[in-house]
TrEMBL record:
One of its GO terms (molecular function) is double-stranded RNA binding. It catalyses: L-threonine + hydrogencarbonate + ATP = L-threonylcarbamoyladenylate + diphosphate + H2O. Its EC number is 2.7.7.87. This is Threonylcarbamoyl-AMP synthase. Residues 5-188 form the YrdC-like domain. The keyword Nucleotide-binding applies.
Length: 188
């Protein structure tokens, strides 16, 4: 799957400036921002009409970006994660107060995904760390699978829209709880 290095560069510039972008993921389009920028997170939540309490997913193309969030996990827990990463599985892991409340919401866990989508992985590497990434749709609407749907939902309210096509998977990423083993959202 091809992507433009210029698109990666522009998306990184926008993220670093506190913007919200739309980008392709393994299955649907996502909205992304810098997880350390509260104003950017608030803008993203406002666009989605999503309450802060629900929490957000952190995505990276490099598992090392989740370093301190993984340091208290057992070898078997890490092995479980490694069996699905990189790929379309999001894991809920205890955060031990290592992420800001605007990322974890009302939860004692944080959602992490090591992506295998070429654009999104390149984006996080160029950005220098994990980004917030949540489906590109207002609450209650179907996630956008095509760029035109993103534009229909958000128009010119986004600071960048691009990165090529999605990975073509049929459903948003699967969400699994690492501690309980429960699948909270089946994948495609």
């Amino acid at each position: 799957m091809k992507y433009s290095p210029l698109a990666v560069k522009e998306a990184v510039r926008v993220l670093a400036a506190g913007g919200v972008i739309a980008h392709p993921t393994e299955s649907v389009w996502g909205l992304a921002c810098d997880p350390h920028n509260l104003q950017a997170v608030e803008k993203l939540l406002r666009l989605k009409n999503r309450p802060l309490e629900k929490g957000l997913i952190l995505v990276s193309g490099d598992e090392a970006d989740f370093g301190e969030l993984l340091q208290n996990l057992s070898g078997s827990q890490l092995q479980q994660m490694h069996s699905t990463w990189p790929g379309p599985v999001t894991w809920l892991v205890p955060h031990f107060e290592r992420v800001p409340p605007w990322i974890s919401g009302a939860h004692h866990s944080v959602a992490l995904r090591c992506t295998d989508h070429p654009f999104t992985a390149a984006l996080t590497r160029a950005f220098g760390g994990a980004i917030v990434s949540t489906s590109a749709n207002p609450a209650g609407c179907q996630p956008a699978r095509q760029k035109y749907q993103v534009l229909r939902y958000f128009g010119d309210e986004l600071d960048f829209v691009g990165g090529g096509a999605t990975g073509g998977r049929s459903a948003p990423s699967e969400i699994r709880d690492l501690i309980s083993g429960r699948i909270l959202r089946p994948g495609g």
